[in-house]
């Protein structure tokens, strides 16, 4: 990481931003009819797939 000029703190901060974005999408999805909270996955890659309609698109 030091080679790229990035400290561990920067990566932790970036992860926190990403997790907050996922949680915001989760809260929005939870208000929709048809959302089943018991089916909300634990793994991050599965969360992204479950919330893909509520997350911003990146180009």
UniProtKB/TrEMBL annotation:
Q: Report what the protein is called.
A: Uncharacterized protein
Identify the species of origin. Answer: Peribacillus frigoritolerans
